């Protein structure tokens, strides 16, 4: 703007505009030079009006002053550009900081105490930085004991200690907690197949939460909406037919509570099938034994053996025997499958 005034020949306007410029855009040496030029300009005009200076000398002196002012203003232009560039970088920095705050609030709606302390600092800094970009906001406030605080600094302190979002965050997150569930197989051998596979779903009212079974049979549910009177039900989805011992049970839950839920292998309580001879004729009265539990086939060769809870497991060893027939022993029979276990007995070589 100063160079435009100089080009138009408005030297008085140049001096007036220079005086109104912010002090941050001019140094003391430049101010002194412009003051001396203004005095020289005023003396020249006064002498010209009095007739002391001729017209040619006046024009020559005006040209010298104009060139001198131009040299000074050329030195001033890089400082102005640098100031504008600094302001642009400041704007982008504070915009980026505000964007970070928004992203954190969206993805961490209920932060920990450490995270929340960091959020307080970022939010207060963002507001203070935004204020510092507003023209006229960089006022200085004199406090007692010779302490001075800029407007942006004062806003930072106010927002940090008043913490206007504390009440909102507390209302939103006070009932958000974590719940740890352990799956407890009734048979120790089932631990290896139950863990690190399958998922558990927890229903609380109209909300459902999903957790993955860990290496210790643990399922951690995070960010769960827990009220003082919350009740939860659970269902188990597993590649092998495991289920909760009490699938219809409802449990009272609380924040940071640990539940231990017994599970069992579906179908492991019963083994059934048929026993026949080599000619495919049904054999009756064949003894079938699993861990001391006995059952006998009927006339159709059918048997059904019930296994007590304490003896149930995924695979069993089955023993079959009938006088006059070879005794048979089967290892690792999958009891949990829905298929019948069909057996063929051979007659003893010395039998009738």
DSSP helix fraction: 25-40%
Number of strands: 17
Low-confidence stretches: 136-143, 145-149
Mean pLDDT: 78
N- to C-terminal distance? 125 Å
Q: Radius of gyration from the CA trace? A: 45 Å
Order of helices and strands: HHHHHEEHHEHEEEEEEEEEEEEEE
Number of helices: 8
The shape, in one word, is: rod-shaped
Explain this structure.
The chain has about 350 residues and is an alpha+beta fold. It folds into four domains: about 1-95, no CATH class; about 110-170, no CATH class; about 175-265, Immunoglobulin-like (Sandwich), CATH 2.60.40.4130; about 270-345, Carboxypeptidase-like, regulatory domain (Immunoglobulin-like). Helices cover about 40% and strands about 30% of the residues. It has helices at about 1-5, 10-20, 30-50, 55-105, 115-130, 150-160, 165-175, 190-195; strands at about 140-145, 145-150, 175-185, 200-205, 205-210, 220-225, 230-235, 240-245, 250, 255-265, 270-275, 285-290, 295, 300-305, 315-320, 330-335, 345. Strand 15 and strand 16 form a beta hairpin. Helix 3 runs antiparallel to helix 4 (about 55-105), helix 4 packs antiparallel against helix 5 and helix 5 packs antiparallel against helix 6 (about 150-160). The chain is rod-shaped.
């Amino acid at each position: 703007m100063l160079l435009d005034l100089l080009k138009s020949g408005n030297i008085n306007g140049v001096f007036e505009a220079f005086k109104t410029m912010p002090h941050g855009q001019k140094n003391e040496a430049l101010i002194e030079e412009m003051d001396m030029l203004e005095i020289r300009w005023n003396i020249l005009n006064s002498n010209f009006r009095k007739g002391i200076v001729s017209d040619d000398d006046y024009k020559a002196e005006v040209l010298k002053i104009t060139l001198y002012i131009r040299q000074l203003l050329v030195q001033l232009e890089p400082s102005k550009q640098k100031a504008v560039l600094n302001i642009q970088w400041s704007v982008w920095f504070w915009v980026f900081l505000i964007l970070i705050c928004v992203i954190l609030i969206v993805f961490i709606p209920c932060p920990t105490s450490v995270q929340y302390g960091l959020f307080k600092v970022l939010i207060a800094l963002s507001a203070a930085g935004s204020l510092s970009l507003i023209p006229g906001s960089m006022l200085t406030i004199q406090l007692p004991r010779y302490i001075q605080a800029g407007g942006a600094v004062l806003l930072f302190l106010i927002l940090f200690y008043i913490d206007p979002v504390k009440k909102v965050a507390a209302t939103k997150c006070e009932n958000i907690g974590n719940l740890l569930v352990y799956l407890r197989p009734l048979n120790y051998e089932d631990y290896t197949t139950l863990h690190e596979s399958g998922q558990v779903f927890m229903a609380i009212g109209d909300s459902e939460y999903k957790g993955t079974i860990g290496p210790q049979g643990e399922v951690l549910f995070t960010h769960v909406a827990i009220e003082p009177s919350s009740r939860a039900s659970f269902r188990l989805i597993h590649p092998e037919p495991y289920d909760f011992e009490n699938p219809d049970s409802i449990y009272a839950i609380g924040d940071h509570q640990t539940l231990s839920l017994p599970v069992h292998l579906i179908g492991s309580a019963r083994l059934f099938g048929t026993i026949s001879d080599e000619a495919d004729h049904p054999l009756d009265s064949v003894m079938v034994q699993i861990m001391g539990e006995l059952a006998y086939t009927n006339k159709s060769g059918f048997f059904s053996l019930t296994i007590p809870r304490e003896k149930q497991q995924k695979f069993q060893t089955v023993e079959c025997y009938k006088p006059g027939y070879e005794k048979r022993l089967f290892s690792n029979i999958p009891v949990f499958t829905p298929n019948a276990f069909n057996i063929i007995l051979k007659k003893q070589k010395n039998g009738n």
